[in-house]
Amino acid sequence: MNFILLTGGLILGWSLGANNTADIFGSAVGSKMVKLKTALTIAAIFVILGAVLQGSNTTKSIGELGKINAIGGAFTVCLATGLTVIWMTRAGFLVSITQALVGGIVGWSLFAGEIVNVGSLTQIIKAWIIAPLIAFLLAFLLYKYLHKLQSKVKINLFTIDYLFRLAFMILGAFGAFSFGANNIANIVGVYIFSNPFKNIYIGNLEITAFQILLFVGAMSIALGILTGSERVMKTVGEKILKLSPLAGLVVVFTQAIVLLLFSSDVLRKILMLLHLPTLPLVPVSSSQVVIGAMIGIGLARGAGRLINFKVLKDIALAWVITPISAGILSFVMLFFTQNVFQLTVRHPIRYTLNKEVIQEIEKLGIDTSQLKTLQGKIFENTANARNTLLSLGKYDKKQIYTILEYMRIDSIVVDTSKLREINLKWFTPEEINEIKKLHRKVYIHSWEFKNELLKSPVFTQKITNLEGKKDFEKQFELLEFLFRKPYK
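^ thats the sequence. predicted structure below, dont judge the formating
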């Protein structure tokens, strides 16, 4: 059954490949620098390589998708998201898989009666607005500078043509590699704890179940690239703005830089050391970045009148419709999955207010006088716990969210054999040794597990500065999802 339910993610992978390949090679194809078949082949190969070789770093995606605690729910959300993107793709619109996925997850949260993390959602939506603006400005300045440089440098036309084609293919291959590495989590992230595959041993070589999952997900993206991306590729490369080779190259380069700004922790640290502003490390829409870059180039060329604003208006409308449609479709399909096909789409999350929980909440400076009247109670779902806290009339929404986080029963079981399933570059050897000391220990709440880790000098010393605290939070997020006992 789990193999059948995996098809939801594979459909999502196909739709991702079909729709978003245009972000990488649309400008190259539109400017006639790279043939369509060549672009599709390069994209398919390097997407697979990126997903398999660099796609194991799934912390962010797990954090976003981990709230879906039943494989039936994961299947339905992926299927609803994939169908939404396929529908928009068939209409020729360039949409964001992240937008559709966020809409699908919100739909699940509403159906399951769970809380949407408004803070994270707000950051992502802000990034959807900021990213194309940065791309617009960067592409405008880059095109202005390179255009002047090109007019001054005297090079044989055949040499220029060769250099442009080579640059497009190199940057396109790198973009496809990064695309696979960054987006594979959107395809398989919700299945990471219900993986139907098993480890394979070929002599001394071990291929883990997770690597197989990554490969299967990557193949679904590659299939979407090869069989369904031509129409959207032409929308980006031809209909929005007729691109010169230089303009197309600026689009590809701009996209790479902007995505790096929103995804690279190393670059973020460098900017902080230079006392420069940084951006949140959240998923952004590569589609929106490409559109922003094209508008910037159009204005830099003094050819704003050549921009097809009708197509832009349709795409902007699609950006609004996509998450809403995915959310509604996800909600409706979850109803049928649960009531018609009798599949579990959610496991109720239980909450408790015991003495230890109240003490931890007190440490945050929150008044617990009224919470003490509820001590010993267990709530069978989020809605009951939230409504009870609201009825007290003492706490705002932010405080209620914090209290619920501490009340939630997580059932953390430390099984260090699972460490082989993650990329250990997140941890030092000393940190791994400290984690192994907790093998077989059980914690009711995730904060208990965190407090236990922080008893070790290795982790205590790490959180003495802001960057150390952020690194520890990433580590803990990964460990929490790795050791959390599946809901039943």
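The chain has a mean pLDDT of 80.
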